[in-house]
What we know:
By secondary structure, the chain is α+β, with helices and mostly antiparallel strands. It has helices at residues 13-21, 56-67, 106-111, and strands spanning 25-30, 46-51, 71-78, 83-90. A hairpin with a 4-residue loop joins strand 3 (71-78) and strand 4. The longest helix is centred in the middle third of the chain and has 12 residues, at 56-67. The protein starts with 12 loop residues before the first helix and ends in a 7-residue tail after the last helix.
Amino acid sequence: MSLDVSALDPGVRDTVTLLRAHGFDTTDSGDGVSKPPEQRVFNVPHVACRIDPARLIEEAKRAQSVLGSAWRVEVSYCSTDEQAVLIATREGEDAEAPSAPHQPTEAEWQDLGRPEGE
């Protein structure tokens, strides 16, 4: 599925692109400042991903490795529907500062299913 990176909050575009380039199935994101307060899930940058429940711990560690120490990675499993989710949040001094527009590499464009520079 193609992703319109320009539709994402500016403060998480790089993070969503990075996670997708590493094979994570991102499902929700926000930078905690671009939307009105009543439309925010969190007041800090966050990205949610669907993950394989059988690989819960492994995927949490892999996401942490991809994102680095500025991000907090948590995972959750629901036995009722057997779904697992990973949520990464970033807090601290730079948490509310949207990043500069991301210029994906050629490989990232291909991973996102779009021609380079489109």
